[in-house]
Amino acid sequence: MKVFEKELVSLFKRFRDYVIADLGKRHDRHLEVGQNPLNINILTFNEDIDIIARDLLINPANNRIEVKIPEAYQAGGAFGSIALGGTLEQRQEEWKKIVAQINVTKAAFSGITQATTSSIKSIVGNGIIQEEPLSEIARDIVRTVDKIGIVRATMMVRTETMKTVNAGIKDRYKQAGVTKVEWLSVANDPWPCEECASYEGQVYPIDDHPEIPVHPNCCCTLLPVIEIPEMEGD
User: Fold this and answer.
1) Pick the residue with more confidence: 35 or 177?
2) Alpha-carbon distances, residue 93 vs 52, 60, 183 (angstroms)
3) In the chain, what are the domain boundaries?
4) Measuring CA to CA, how many Å separate 20 from each of 30, 37, 42, 74, 119?
5) How many other C-beta atoms can be found within 10 angstroms of the C-beta atom of residue 160?
6) pLDDT at residue 18 above 90?
7) pLDDT tens-digit profile of 58-80?
8) Three-class SS state of 183
9) Residue 78 in contact with residue 174, Cβ under 8 Å?
10) Which pairing describes strands 203-205 and 180-184: parallel, antiparallel, or unpaired?
11) Is the dihedral of CA 54, 59, 62, 64 positive or negative?
C-alpha cells in the first residue's frame, strides 16, 4: 500500500510541476515589457490541462490500479486460489470482483483528478482577473494540488486497498467454511477511532457485519471464528 501511495503522490507532484512550468512558457510568449500579471489564453489552457491530466495522472494511475488491486486481493488470501487452481466458476467469480473493484478505484481517482483540475482552472482564471503574478498563482496551485490531489488520492488508496483486502479475506474464509468473523481494529491501528474501537472483538455472521472499511483510511479487518464441535461424553 505504501508503494502505491508514493506512486500516486509522485504522479501529482509531476503533474503540479508540469502545469506550473507550462504556465510560465505560455506567459513568456505573451509577455510585454513591464508586464507582471499572468497573461495567457485561458480558454486554450483549460482545454490543454484536461489533456495533461489524462496523460500525466489518469492513464499512468489506471495502469497502476490494474496491478495493485489484484495484488491487494491476493494479500487478502482469496486471489491465491487462482494461482493454485480453483474451479472455473470460482476463478470467474473472483475476477468479476477484482474487475469491479478496479473500476471503482479508477472512477474514484478520476473524480479526484477532475476536482484538482477544476480548482487549478479556477485559480488561474481568478489570477488573471485579479492581475496576480505567476509566482502567486503557482503558490496557490501547489497548495491546491497538495490538499485536493495528494491528500485525497492517498486516502483513496488506503480505503480502496483495505476494501479489496477484506473482500479477499472474506472469500477465503467462505471457501474454508467459516460462517462467523471477529472484528479486529487494534492490530492494524494502535489508536483506532471511537467507532472502530466499539466493534473490536465483536463476532458477526460472515455476511452480516458492519460495513468495512468503516470510514476513509480505516484499517480494520476480520478474523475467522473457528467453532470446534463439542466432543460427546463417554
Assistant:
1) 177
2) 36, 27, 25
3) 2-176, 177-234
4) 16, 15, 14, 39, 14
5) 25
6) yes
7) 999 999 999 888 888 877 765 33
8) strand
9) no
10) antiparallel
11) negative
